[in-house]
Write a structure and sequence with these properties.
The complex is a heterodimer of chains A (94) and B (430). In chain A, 24% of the residues lie in helices and 21% in strands. Chain A is of the alpha+beta class and 94 residues long. Chain A starts with 5 loop residues before the first helix and ends with a strand. Chain B is of the alpha/beta class and 430 residues long. Chain B folds into 3 domains: 209 residues, FAD/NAD(P)-binding domain (3-Layer(bba) Sandwich), CATH 3.50.50; 102 residues, D-Amino Acid Oxidase, Chain A, domain 2, CATH 3.30.9.10; 63 residues, no CATH class. The chains are: A alpha+beta (94), B alpha/beta (430).
Chain lengths: 94, 430
């Protein structure tokens, strides 16, 4: 079957993003100075976290709320919570 | 200030079960669900067992949105372009009452939510529970993300899923370890029913499940699966977060890798992806289980890490724990004692149940396999190599072939290590 990119797959899901991110990097200096592995940039199933020259950018709008990132981060540097009620992803099939 | 008998946090299998039983018993129950409707945030692979579903919802087989009833369960131990397959097909599974169905969690839970409402519980969607309220150490309610968001109750049932914010907030669990959780991703791929039936060798509403090991996870601790639905298949794969970190693998890439496997690709050929999702699976077993109760609060389902990954059971254990939680709440109500001591009855019920006994039996499994990756790469490869050697006619005698197979195995791992590996694996599940 035709291979879809991750972006194309995320178009199939329905999202209602909040105005602010529910995912926050606690201390950006930890990412820059201490973290070499940057596990969050690939363990997230929707690649929410991208390394941008000297900091992590958080594309929280496509988050599917699984909870991988705070456990993956070896420095415990991700403040994780669910989006506010009524926001975030809605699964039609689940 | 509103006060209920019971606050249930999370409209999944555990929470909806507890709410149903407690509402049926006449208690004043509120269920807070952060999604738009029950099921809207819920994900599972897809097999719903009739036990204990039929105890709660006797008419579910007729009324619930079910996909296919499973008549065959396959296991594939995979290498790069092969699989050693074991299957159990049983026509007794075809007759009613049926024990296995595939479901789509979002649709099933929406239906179950209607049953819970009809029983008299109040389900409040689009409402995130932020933390527990305490008074003199006792949990007395929750704070929700709404104006005037303090809601009180005699008891709170935390059924808020694997990431249970409540169990953490109430101090019942510590931080997660990356080897105790698996990240699983899944796609729903639409296919005509006729294509599914011819590819999987079934007719009518029959279905098949395939569990996949080895190359399915690129050698990481985890599994892949394909489950047939009415007009779609669910295909997914998961691995522990520790291994995703260590192997440097993105879960979506892992799923694409599985979809491209030469044994998998023909099964989904021509299909159209309809949805992509991810979910954590509690794989830590008993060692990762939080404290199950405290004064004024119980923890059930995934929030309590009740998953038996060897037997692919989770949602049914969640429902079972919801039943036990409801029973414990009714007893506490009758005795007027919602203290830690009164609710410890729930811990006893769980300990006496098959949930706990099975998790206890397999308590060493997660740790064993975390340290024995050879079961996810070396041994599947050797098994497939051996099968191909034995099955392929050649001028070489079977005796010499067998010697060659053993020599190849010993070249890659010593006899002593192999004996230790298999004895350890057997011990961890025996």
């Amino acid at each position: 079957m035709k291979k879809l990119s991750l972006e194309e797959k995320l178009f199939l899901d329905s999202f209602r993003p909040d105005r602010e991110s529910h995912l926050v990097i606690k201390d950006p200096r930890v990412c820059l100075e201490k973290c070499t592995a940057k596990w969050c940039t690939f363990t997230c199933p929707v690649r929410t976290y991208r390394w941008d020259v000297d900091h992590i950018t958080v594309f929280y709008e496509g988050c599917v709320e699984c909870g991988t990132c705070p456990v993956s981060c070896e420095f415990g540097n991700i403040e994780w919570r669910y989006p506010r009620g009524g926001f975030g992803v809605t699964f039609k099939y689940g | 200030m509103e006060k209920f008998d019971v606050i249930v946090v999370g409209a999944g299998p555990a929470g909806l079960t507890a709410a149903l039983l407690l509402a049926q018993a006449g208690l004043n129950v509120v269920v807070f669900e952060r999604g738009d409707f029950p099921g809207s945030k819920n994900v599972m692979g897809g097999v719903l067992y009739s036990w204990p579903t039929k105890e709660l919802l006797p008419d579910f087989a007729r009324e619930a949105p079910l996909e296919r009833h499973i008549i065959e369960q396959r296991m594939w131990i995979m290498s790069a372009e092969s699989a050693f397959s074991v299957a159990h097909r049983n026509m007794a599974f075809d007759r009613e009452p049926r024990d296995f169905h595939t479901v789509l969690r979002s649709r099933f839970d929406k239906w179950m939510g209607q049953k819970v409402r009809a029983a008299g519980a109040l389900i409040v969607p689009e409402t995130l529970v932020e933390t527990v309220l305490r008074k003199n150490g006792q949990v007395v309610g929750v704070r929700v993300g709404r104006a005037e968001g303090e809601v009180h109750a005699d008891v709170v049932i935390a059924a808020d899923g694997v990431n249970s914010v409540l169990a953490r907030e109430a101090g019942l669990r510590g931080a997660f370890r990356p080897e105790h959780l698996a990240t699983a991703v899944k796609e729903i791929i639409a296919l005509p029913a006729t294509a599914i039936e011819s590819r999987f060798g079934v007719t009518g509403g029959q279905g098949v499940t395939i569990e996949m090991f080895g190359a399915a996870t690129m050698g990481m601790v985890g599994t892949g699966f394909i489950y047939t639905n009415r007009e779609s298949v669910s295909i997914g794969v998961g691995a522990t977060i520790r291994d995703l970190n260590d192997f440097g693998v993105n879960p979506n890439d892992l799923l694409e890798h599985l979809k491209a496997h030469p044994l998998v690709a023909p099964l989904i050929e021509g299909g159209e992806t309809r949805e992509y999702m991810a979910h954590l699976i509690p794989e830590g077993g008993l060692r990762a289980m939080p404290k199950l109760s405290t004064g004024g609060m119980l923890v059930a389902g995934d929030a309590a890490m009740m998953v038996n990954s060897l037997h692919r059971q989770g949602a049914n254990l969640a429902m079972r724990s919801g039943q036990l939680a409801a029973r414990a709440v009714l007893r506490a109500k009758a005795q007027g004692d919602f203290s830690a001591r009164g609710l410890a009855y729930y811990d006893r019920l769980v300990r006496d149940s098959a949930i706990y006994k099975d998790l206890h039996k397999y308590r060493g499994m997660a740790r064993f396999f975390e340290r024995h990756h050879e079961f996810f790469s070396l041994y599947p490869d050797l098994l497939n190599h051996a099968a191909a050697e034995v099955l392929t006619p050649s001028p070489v005698s079977q005796r010499r072939k067998q010697r060659g197979i053993f020599a190849e195995a010993r070249r890659r791992r010593s006899l002593w290590r192999m004996a230790k590996d298999f004895f350890g694996a057997w011990r961890s599940i025996a």
